[in-house]
Amino acid sequence: MPRRIESHWIAGPAGRLEALLEEPEGAWPVLAALVCHPHPLFGGTMLNKVVHRLARGLRRAGAVTLRFNFRGVSRSQGRHGHLTGEVEDAGAALAWMRERYPDLPFALAGFSFGARVITHLGCGMEGARFLLAVGFPTSMGGAEYLESCPSAKIFVASTGDEFAPRGALDALFARVAEPKRLLWVDGADHFFAGALDALEETVWREAREYAML
User: Fold this and answer.
1) Disulfide-capable partner of 57 in 2, 46, 94, 204 (CB 3.0 to 4.6 Å)?
2) What is residue 210's predicted lDDT score, i.e. its pLDDT?
């Protein structure tokens, strides 16, 4: 069975959003995963190399993935929404994906700024199988909402992350509500330099475990 890859336009709260839907190779999906990209004002797009590996690891675990560009990025309409608007965009993309795959459990995943987006969205709703936050940037401010977030949370971090130093992320993680996991990948920087293969393997392993629940 050939892998389905489709480009879509999704109606967002600030205009249409450019999106890419990809199903897993050679099998029916067992999970639907929304994947969010890093900061729009610093070059983040759905084609970011970490986001690409994140989505691929999820697909290897049996997920259909939906990546999209936030408002004002590439061909998506609108202007940067200072996190609040991007959380709204993610909500619209998630609603579209769940309508497309109503019988599948769903998960949320994101890298950097995208990790902030998906945790804000996922902690404010019920039903997500897990929230996968890669490169969660502690330098972007407080994250008190995680202290009461009931969703299953998986944090994946690079040991050399300059935007989430190990001490800062360990301290934040200690305050995060259960259920939670924190996994370190031996990378040189925030973008997992020299460790993209290890990142993908970690995502695949964790997502596979949760997908089979």
Assistant:
1) 204
2) 84
Strands of 131-134's sheet in order across: 5-12, 15-22, 63-68, 31-36, 106-111, 131-134, 153-158, 180-185
Model pTM score? 0.97
Q: Identify the burial level of 127 via C-beta atoms within 10 angstroms of its C-beta, where 0-12 means exposed, 13-18 middle and 19 or more buried.
A: exposed
Domain around 63 = 5-22+40-211
- Is 35 a member of any domain? no
Give the amino acid at 9: W
Structural domains in the chain (count): 1
If we measure between CA atoms, which residue out of 84, 107, 96 comes closest to residue 16?
A: 96
Tell me if 33 is assigned to some domain: no
Let me know if residue 184 belongs to a domain: yes
Cα distances from 100 to residues 54, 64, 66, 92, in angstroms, run 21, 11, 11, 13
Intervals of the chain under pLDDT 50: none
| Alpha helix stretches (DSSP H) within the chain | 49-60, 84-100, 113-123, 166-175, 196-211
Separate counts of helices (H) and strands (E) for the chain: 5, 8
Contacts of 78 (CB under 8 A, 6+ apart): 12, 14, 15, 71, 72, 85
In a domain, 200, yes or no: yes
